Amino acid sequence: MSDAAAPSGTLSINVKGPQDVKLPITVPTGATVAELKALVAEANPDFPADQQRLIFSGRVLKDEELCSKYNLKDGHTIHLVKGARPAGPSGVPGTSAAAGVPSSFGAGQQVMGNPLAPLMNAQNAGALAGFNPFAEMGVNPNDPNYMQNMMRDPAVQGQINSLLSDPAVIDQLIATNPELAAAGPQVRQLMQSEQFRSFLTNPEAMQQAMGMMGGMGGAGGGGGGGFPPPGAFGWGSGAGAAGAQGQQGQQGQGQGQGLFNPWGSTPPSAATGGDGAAGAGATPPAAGAPGAFNPFAPAGGAGGAPNFQQMMQQMQQLQQLQQMFGGAGGLGGLDGAPATPSGPVVPPEERYATQLEQLAGMGFHDAAKNVRALLASGGNVEGAVGWLFEN
Amino acid sequence: MAKVPRSFRLLEELEKGEKGIGDGTCSYGLADGDDILMEKWNGTIIGPGHSVHENRIYSLNIVCDASYPDQPPSITFLTRINLPCVHPTTGKVDPSKLPVLSAWKHNYTLETVLVELRRDMATPTNRKLPQPVEGTNF
């Protein structure tokens, strides 16, 4: 064994990977780990060198080190793990690129590798007429699973959270949208509200919104055409959720899904005061028939660009509708789905009991703050941790 | 049964670690190949799949003092991890919270400890615990 370490010699080692992958590799004794990785990649193209993580003797081998530094000898076995692909040109293997760490959004400029980038551009550009933000992404906006999957992704949730918590982004969003600017300070307040953010990152709420989109698609006619940008999308569906849950101003079980309703709810820590803010925000006068309420009509409708004002009108129409139909029933009919009566008020402390326990276990002892964090993250512990670090 | 002296026992474990016997999810070896007392060891655990630890590699320090294997080794995580048996700031594994250490048996090995730690990460209560950013150390 000892004579195998001659400077000009070679080492015969085994590289053991997942699923019984076993590669006998012969490497020159003076080789670096990076060279070893290249040999492994040659032997098995499933493992590109930049995705390999080699472990020997309880250590992760570093690219720049010589194999000899790790006392590799003939017959030794190295474990191979396939790591994540480095995220960017500067990505270092082993560091997390998509951990949902906030701070990547300065003033809404595009960030490489950001799955939401096309969406953000759509928002910031202010060019909304007939614009389908999903077209760029090569996905079918009518696919009910797409949005849901995207929203389930904690990275995306984190990004939305961080995006909307950044006042600069909201400023820009408002500045590029005359209608938003005209609607006054409530907009900013609303966008910064935890409820709004948590709604955007709540997969169930989004799912219901997608469901509504499907249900309402046919009824659009001459109403608002074009696919609204994500922000507006959130608004429309939020209004829908408020309708589904009646006027009691409580958060309940919209369609039995434990849907979190940013407008209907009035938790004690609410930043915007629930329904009040929604009402105040809906300054433009309401007009038009129920048929006009179609924020989700697929692109191609005859109407003009959907804008904030329109969304607000629709919201108010919905409120009127809601009154007409007597609360929950109204939306149920529109939605094509039976609306379940809203459940009893469950305080967030109770709903998020397990999550609160976890947070406490992690050393976040401010219970009131934890509740707010969970509300902001829609019950997602990781999101809540992010929020707590931010605030 | 005859008791294997500490050094023979550790040499055996060292060879096993270097040859990579086992399922490949845990690895260990001497921190310093010249350490004739074989006290300080490195260990790695590849995070179990279907858990928050998936695709993460955890590095640990293992110290086998003179009383090993009659007494359990002391384990310290180098990679940050959120696990009930691991001290949140020092990374030290609390022996009283990990059955394999609290009920130590002479024939347990370093591999036993690492495999048990990995199993602990995959338990239903632990596998979804929120974890610190990957790649940070204690």
UniProtKB/TrEMBL annotation, chain A:
**Amino acid composition bias (Low complexity), ranges on this chain:** 280-307
Protein name, as recorded = Uncharacterized protein
Annotated region (Disordered) at 220-307, 326-347
BP term (GO), one: ubiquitin-dependent protein catabolic process
Q: Which Gene3D superfamilies does its entry note?
A: DNA helicase RuvA subunit, C-terminal domain (1.10.8.10), Phosphatidylinositol 3-kinase Catalytic Subunit, Chain A, domain 1 (3.10.20.90)
A GO molecular function assigned to this protein is: polyubiquitin modification-dependent protein binding
| Ubiquitin-like domain mapped to chain residues | 11-81
Location of the UBA domain: 347-391
Q: What is the organism of origin for this protein?
A: Leucosporidium creatinivorum
Organism taxonomic ancestry: Eukaryota, Fungi, Dikarya, Basidiomycota, Pucciniomycotina
At the top level, the lineage of the source is: Eukaryota
Which residue ranges have biased composition labelled Gly residues? 233-243, 326-335
SMART domains assigned to the protein according to its UniProt record, in alphabetical order: STI1, UBA, UBQ
TrEMBL record, chain B:
The GO annotation for biological process reads: DNA damage tolerance
Record has Acyltransferase as a keyword: no
UniProt xrefs under SUPFAM superfamilies: UBC-like
User: Which protein, by its recorded name, is this?
Assistant: UBC-like protein
Kindly give the CDD domains that the UniProt entry links to this protein. UEV_UBE2V (cd23807)
- Domain of life (superkingdom): Eukaryota
Q: Name one Pfam family in it.
A: UQ_con
Q: Please list the residue ranges annotated as the UBC core domain.
A: 5-138
Would I find Nucleus among this entry's keywords?
no
Alphabetical list of Gene3D superfamilies matching this protein: Ubiquitin Conjugating Enzyme (3.10.110.10)
**InterPro entries, alphabetized:** UBC, UBQ-conjugating_enzyme/RWD
Keyword tags: Ubl conjugation pathway
The upper taxonomy is: Eukaryota, Fungi, Dikarya, Basidiomycota, Pucciniomycotina
